[in-house]
Specification:
By secondary structure, this protein is of the alpha/beta class. It has 3 domains: 112 residues, Response regulator (Rossmann fold), CATH 3.40.50; 165 residues, Rossmann fold (3-Layer(aba) Sandwich), CATH 3.40.50.300; 134 residues, Helicase, Ruva Protein, domain 3 (Orthogonal Bundle). It is built from 18 helices and 14 strands. The strands form 4 sheets. It has a 5-stranded parallel β-sheet, with helices on both faces. Strand 4, helix 4 and strand 5 form a beta-alpha-beta unit. The relative contact order is 0.10.
């Protein structure tokens, strides 16, 4: 996690920095907004910005949007008025962190923004082979194509390869080709020169140049438009790029790892993916099997997530009953490990005894209402999943004093999902 802090250094910011670095963040500083923007344009990228709410947060976010710099912003303040926090949120800040900093809140924000520190854990022989192959090819310079369904852990394997490579001391840069609008992706990847298009007020270094000396991961590359694939082919083949509006090629020293949840051979047959680009990317293919084919990993992950979220919520560790495990092992897991993690997080919060039984394991389409517990507790009997979910979300939000990032982290859902749920319930609560 690359964190940029904007504000005048003081003891409280130093304390927040120490907490972030303890969680694995690499921290850089800028005293004001213009200095920060200059740094970002030059290729010193960030995955998260923390900005003092005494600064003009709206100006910062408007500038990022205008210059197509995609990075989330979190506001912070020492003895700041509640109006400052609300103004920062309304200006587009993802969250507000009061100073002196709270370590749990810092951790929640970092975890919500990036999964970089998640451990690579597994137990199945299928994943053992995947990890062995990844370690074997990591020291090479060959391009790698990682395939598998969404939620199987493709980015974690990509980071593992980077961390085991000769480039480990340099940047690992990720571009989500599915998340960035088509008209912005070219500038995001290759950068642009000043005046290249309306709003290009300064030269901007793209992700390819940010990854210089390190690894560039092109996530879900099958979602890239075929026209842009032609420009990508040249970058992969020649190891050089042209900035948008530029007239001089830029040489590169990077390794490329691409991921896809689709069959790229089928995409080639259907005319949606260039065959020559596939040949260049698919020097080595690592395929991650879906969770339903890795039965030993289901129990292993389930118990790992139970421990993780018991600690996160200040609850005692709970045992997983055999009937509950049977439900998990028989589920198809279309969302793979990500879906299992969310399921076990909910189970930790819903369990009413010292163990996690069938009644706490809520899977989409399998339970219409919460079953009574073995100890006779009937408080949830007859309730629909929707009503239980609503109460759980609102109570968790209240517990977090309206902090959406912290609440979403506890609930195991994205901030966007939380916002949509709150709109359904009739009001979008925000942190103040």
């Amino acid at each position: 996690m690359r964190l940029l802090i904007i504000g005048v250094a003081n003891s409280q910011i130093n304390s927040a920095t120490a907490m972030a670095e303890k969680r694995g963040a690499k921290v850089s500083y800028a005293s004001d907004i213009e200095t920060a923007l200059t740094s970002l344009r030059s290729g010193k990228s960030a995955e998260l910005i923390m900005a003092d709410v005494s600064l003009d947060i709206k100006k910062l976010i408007d500038s990022l949007v205008a210059e197509r710099i995609i990075v989330p912003v979190v506001g912070f303040g020492l003895n700041a008025k509640s109006e400052d926090a609300v103004r920062a949120i309304k200006s587009g800040a993802r969250e507000y962190i009061p100073l002196p900093p709270d370590e749990e809140m810092i951790a929640a924000v970092l975890e919500a923004i990036s999964d970089e520190n998640n451990p690579l854990i597994y137990k199945s022989p299928q994943m053992e082979k995947v990890v062995q192959l990844s370690a074997q090819i990591a020291p090479s310079e060959a391009n790698v194509l990682i395939t598998g369904e969404s939620g199987t852990g493709k980015e974690m394997i990509a980071r593992y390869i980077h961390n085991k490579s000769k480039r480990a001391d340099n940047n690992f840069i990720s571009v989500n080709c599915a998340a960035i609008p088509e008209n912005l992706l070219e500038s995001e990847m290759f950068g642009h020169e000043k005046g290249a298009f309306t709003g290009a007020i300064a030269r901007r270094i793209g992700k390819f140049e940010e990854a210089e000396g390190g690894t560039l991961m092109l996530d879900e590359i099958s979602e890239m438009d075929t026209k842009l694939q032609a420009k990508l082919l040249r970058a992969v083949q020649e190891r050089e790029i042209d900035r948008v509006g530029g007239n001089k090629p830029v040489k590169l020293n990077i390794r490329i790892i691409a991921t896809s949840n689709r069959d790229l051979q089928e995409e080639v047959k259907n005319g949606r993916f260039r065959e020559d680009l596939l040949f260049r990317l698919n020097i080595i293919n690592i395929h991650l099997p879906p969770l339903r084919e890795r039965k030993p990993d289901i129990e292993f992950f389930a118990k790992h997530f139970i421990r993780k979220y018991s600690i996160a919520n200040g609850l005692p560790d709970k045992a997983l009953t055999k009937p509950a495990l049977a439900i998990l092992e028989n589920h198809a897991w279309p969302g793979n490990v990500r879906e299992l993690e969310n399921t076990m997080h909910r189970a930790v919060l819903l369990a009413t005894s010292g163990e996690i039984g069938e009644e706490a394991v809520m899977l989409p389409g399998t339970l219409k209402e919460v079953k009574p517990t073995s100890d006779g507790n009937t408080g949830l009997v007859g309730r629909t999943m929707e009503s239980v979910e609503r109460e759980l979300i609102l109570n968790t939000l209240d517990h977090c004093l309206g902090n959406r990032t912290h609440a979403a982290n506890i609930l195991g859902i994205s901030i966007r999902t939380l916002r949509n749920k709150l709109k359904e319930y009739g009001g979008d609560k925000t942190a103040a």
